[in-house]
Each structure stands twice: as structure tokens, then as C-alpha cells.
Amino acid sequence: MNSPAFDLLMWARGPAFDIALTIFIGGIIIRVLEIVILGRKKDMAAPKGNPVAQGFKTIFSRSIPREGLVKFAPITYLGGYIFHLGFFVAFLFFAPHIALFTDAFGIKWPDAGRVIIESATALAVIALLALIYSRMTDPVRKALTTFDDYLVLILSGLPLITGYVAVNKLFGDGQMMIAIHILSVEALMIAFPFTKLMHAVTFVMSRYYNGTIQGRKGAES
Amino acid sequence: MSATIDRGLNALREQIDSPVASFFSSCVSCGLCAEACIFYRATEDPKYTPIKKLDLMRRVWAREFTLFGRIGGMLGLIKPVTDEDLTEWETLVYDSCTMCGRCSLVCPVGNDITMMIRKMREGMSAAGHAPVELIGAAQRHTDKGSPMGDLSKAIHAQVKHAIDETGIEIEFDKEGVDYMVILSAQEIAEFPDVLSAMARIFKKTGVTWTISSEAFEATNVGIQLGNRDVAKVLVSRVVEAAEKLKVKGIISPECGHAYQALRWEGPNLIGRTYPFEVVHIIELLDRLRAEGKLKTKGKNTDRLTFHDPCQINRRGGINQEPRNLMNMVSEDFVEMESGGTMNWCCGGGGGVGANERAEKLRHAAFKFKKIQIDKVEPDAIVTMCAYCHHTLDNVFEEFDIEQDVIGLTELVAEYLDDDA
Questions:
Q1: What is residue A31's predicted lDDT score, i.e. its pLDDT?
Q2: Three-state SS for B331?
Q3: CA distance B153 to chain A (A)
Q4: Is B419 domain-assigned?
Q5: Domain residues for B242?
Q6: What number of H helices and E strands is found in chain A?
Q7: How far is it, in rounded angstroms, from Cα B134 to Cα B16?
Q8: Segment A92-131, tens digit of pLDDT
Q9: The complex's ipTM?
Q10: Contact assessment for residue B217 and residue B235, using Cβ atoms and an 8 Å cutoff
């Protein structure tokens, strides 16, 4: 009855997930606390605009590129958008994923159909490959890129690829492929606090700070 | 030597706060800041990528302000900052950045890279790695009252000239008036006509004003050099003079970093809010226009365009005001491509204009800026910063280009309705 694939799946869903979740959450808390405890001096300059309102606004408005810039870095912009959207569609709107949230928190939302999920996944992987390619060839991106950047790209791609393989039963044992898929997600979670994946949390703070700094001056952000 | 680098690194550590830590945590090395940078765009050299100019500060933050970075440092994964590093980075931090702020507006995670350059300069200058011209200017400014030396005689001569020209009395050190006017050294030395322009406008609009004989210099080399102590001394002089004269406000002149220094950094440098307002001359003129006090007659028929000074618009928040005034006095006002908040820098700000070593780079940046100007083919460029004015005049001369540059205050004064 107990096959190695089944054992691995059970371990991935049980103890391995607990370990990954602990590191994921604990690590994020440490990283965020490290930022927050540094504090920030109160700005004494009489405000011209509303710093706090603009801070919150900038969290959202910075998702839209400045006019005229996209054509100078099309792969970065388009690849960035497609990857992020594709990743979150596949992650949040695939019925079995929603079921996990329902089990854990008792919440549920409508799922997207299989065509949407698989298209999103495929597009996200293609976007990732384009982003890797531009990191290797574009002089600016190449000069900035470190091991961390490639690691993050690969770790973000693995859950997409393994999920696609498992769902479509492309090859290998079904249970084994799901186990590998779950383990790839756990690798992403464990790496999260130690790598640039942290931007997914701290970008909210950065955009807010940028908005408050500019907002105080009544300047655009 | 090691004492100097320690002083520099300490100054840098003092600058690291929550925003800086969140910015470094958020950077995904996407490289989009390069596309916003005039020095990268003009040269296409990746070393001018804005976030790369902060690499030393990032290393100090990672090694000392993060748990995982500390472990990484112990394992030798993140190298400590050495004096050689600082030498190498000096030109990146001072020569190839005018602190124009375009990168801070395009970063997708919202990093205020410009603010971090300002902070990194604190460390660089404390470690003795700053351009000699800025160090010299700071010395002159602290000792003699202005980055150009003692301008006391010059300001008195220029005021006398303005009085003779306009027949309007301008009094030094007059208590209880509305505003204390300060001027940039560049205006006193190169563009003194602004005094006559202000005298005429204020007379017509009923604004009372004075100039302090003790603190008439508006510029602040401390914020370009990256030395809070110098910056604080210079701001304090102006603040104390204004308090002594019991004015309602200070008029910050057509000078980019002067506005930045007095309006936005000043209260934080001296650690308290001002008991008076600081208003930029163009902000005030637009206010007087809106109140119906400033009236003009006729319009300039030349093709005019407007150059936004980085520290006044993008980093200062004054965007619509000059446009209101331009439309009031100009019939053919044409915006440049990316005019307004995303305007390209003149290439001379942030101390780069004073830095001889940076001349070649500044000229490369100007050639890029020129493309923006050429698309409009203006008869004249109007601006609201004497240093932008000076930089543009100089590069036009350098490249044998006939191109007029005008200060906005003077342009408005030209069309003042004397009958109103």
C-alpha cells in the first residue's frame, strides 16, 4: 500500500510543509522587524501635500509604468507583468489551491477554468524565460544580476512547471509529481526571507515611504 | 587613513533608517532606474545605473543591519567596505548624479534612490571622498558667507543698481515686513536683474520685503557635498536672520537646491519647525496671480518652452505654478517632451556643475538634453533656477549654439501691467 511516492507526498504535505511555513513566516517577521525598528525621524518641514494619503496611493499607483518608459525596457516590463499576473492567477484561482485555503481558513472564492489556469501558467513560464534571457544579455541587467536573482527566478518557475506536469500527468508517477510540486513550493517558501523574494512584502513599505516623501512636498510620486 | 574611513562609515550608518532598509530589501535589480538616468541614457554605460551607485551603502546595510547579512558577512559572502571602494565610488556618487530624482519616480518597487544618494554623500564626504570644488565651496560658504566668497559688497552694489534702475526703494534689514528675500550667489553674480524684477512686481502687488545684510545667500553647498553640519550652519544663518527681522516669510529664489535646502531639509537640519513660511518666488507669484493682485498686460509672441528645475518640480512639488504664469505672459508656450515632472535635468545640479572632473560627462548629458530642446525649437527657454540658467548658458556657449534662456520672474516683470 505504502509506496515511496505516497510516503514522500505525505511528508511533503505534513512535516515538510510545517517546517517551510515556520521558516517562511518567521523569516518574514524578522526581516520586516529589522526594517521597522530602524525607525524614521519625524519630518519637521511644514507639509504642502498629504504625505500619508499619497503614501497609500503610491502603493497602488506605482504598479503603472511612467509614460514612455516601456519601450526602453519591454522585456522587463512585459515579462514582469505577465509573470506576476500568471503566477498569481495559477496560485489563487486553481480549484485545488482554493480548496487548500478552504480547508485551512474556511474561506473560498470562485475558481478559474482549466484553460485560464493553464494559459496563465504557460505564459508565466515563458515570461520567466524571457526575464532570464534579458538578465543574461542586457548590459544593465547583467551588471546588476547576482546568483540571488537567478535563484529567485528558478525557484519561482519550478512550482509552475511541476504543477503543470502534475495536473496534466505529462510523465512520472502522479503522486510523485504532486509531491515534487509541493516540495518546489516549500523551497520557494524557505528561500523567501533570505532572497529578493522579500520584495513581495517590502514593496508595500517602499512605495509607501516614497509616496510620503514626495507627498509632503506636494510632488508627484 | 583608517580613522577617516571609520568616520565615513559611521556617518553612513547614521543615515540608515526604515525607508533605506525597505528600499534595499525591495530592489529586484530590474535595471529600470538606468532608463530614467540622464547619465546612463547619454552614455549607455551600465556603471551609471542609479541603484549601482549605492552599492557600498547597500553592503553596509546588509552586513550590519540584517541578521542574515551579518551571517553572510561572517562567512565572507558580503565584503566590508574599504577605502579603495570609496575612492572608486566617489565619481559615481558625485560626478554621475545630479540628484535629479527621475529614478525615484520610475522604480517599480518605489525606491527613493535619489534620497539614498543624498544620504550616501554624507558618508563619502565624512570619509574625505568628495570633489575638491565642493569642499572648497563649503569652506568659503562657511567662512565668508557664500560659495563664491564674500558677496556683501556685490549685493549692496546690485541693490543700488536695481534702485537706480527702477526708482523703487529696497531696504536692507527692515523689520516687520512681509518677506525676507534671499538670493543665490549665481543671481548676485550673474543674473542681478531679478532684483529689479522683484522690486517692480512687489511694489505693484503690495508685498513688503527686505534683504538681510547678514544672510542674503540662499544656496547651500552642504546638501550637495553631503555634510549635515555645514548644511545646518548655512540654514541656521537664514532662519536666525528671518527671526530677527520678524518677517512673515522667506522668499526662496530661483534656485533649485536652495529651495530644497531651506524648505524641505532645513527644519530637519535645525530640528524644529519654522515660525514663518518659506515660499518659492514662483509659488508666491502664482499666489498673487490667483488673488488677482498680479496683473499683466500683453503677451510674449516668441516660441517659449519651460525647463523644470529638478529640485523645484520633481523634488520640490512646484509644477503647475510656473505653467499658470507662462500662460499668462506667453502666447506661444510649448511644452517639451517629458516636460513637467519628468523633465530631463540640465546636467549641472547636485554639485556636478561645480565639479571640473565631471565636465565631459556633463557635456554628454547635455547632448542628450539638447535632443529634448531641439524637438521644440524654442526662441527662448524659460526656467526658474539660476543654476539651470547658468548651466544651459554655459553649455550652449561651449557648443556654439545660439539659444536664449530667461528667468521666469524677469519674464513676468516684463509684462507687468503698470496701469493696473
A1: 97
A2: strand
A3: 33
A4: no
A5: 134-288
A6: 11, 0
A7: 24
A8: 999 999 999 999 999 999 999 999 999 999 999 999 999 9
A9: 0.96
A10: no
Q: Using CB atoms, which residue from A58, A202, A213 is nearest to B25?
A: A202
Considering the domain architecture, whether residues B248 and B201 belong to the same structural domain is answered as: yes
Of B256, B288, B320, the residue that ends a domain is B288
The b/e string for A26-37 (b: 16+ C-beta within 10 A; e otherwise) is ebbeebbebbee
Q: Which residues of B touch A195 (CB under 8 A)?
A: none
Task: For residue B1, count CB atoms less than 10 angstroms from its CB and return exposed for 0-12, middle for 13-18, buried for 19 or more.
Answer: exposed
DSSP class of A65: P
Please, which residues have CB within 8 angstroms of residue A92's CB and are 6 or more apart in sequence? A98
Please name the amino acid found at residue B353: G
Number of domains chain B contains: 3
**What are the DSSP calls for B117-185, one per residue?**
HHHHHHHHHHTT-S-HHHHHHHHHHHHHSSTTS--HHHHHHHHHHHHHHH-----BT-TT-SEEE-B-H
pLDDT digits (tens, 9 = 90+) for B306-324: 999 999 999 999 999 999 9
Percentages helix, strand, coil for chain A (3-state, rounded to 5) are 75, 0, 25
Q: Which three cell numbers stand for residue B212?
A: 538681510
Same domain, B87 and B232: no
A36 touches chain B (CB under 8 A): yes
Rounded Cα distance between A153 and A155, Å, is 6
Amino acid at B320: Q
What's the burial of B360, exposed, middle or buried (CB within 10 Å: 0-12/13-18/19+)? Answer: exposed
CATH number of domain containing B381: 3.40.50
How much is the pTM?
0.96
Inspect the interface and report whether the beta carbons of A35 and B34 lie closer than 8 Å: no
Instruction: State the amino acid at position A151 in one-letter form.
Output: L
User: Is the CB of B272 less than 8 angstroms away from the CB of A44?
Assistant: yes
DSSP B51: G
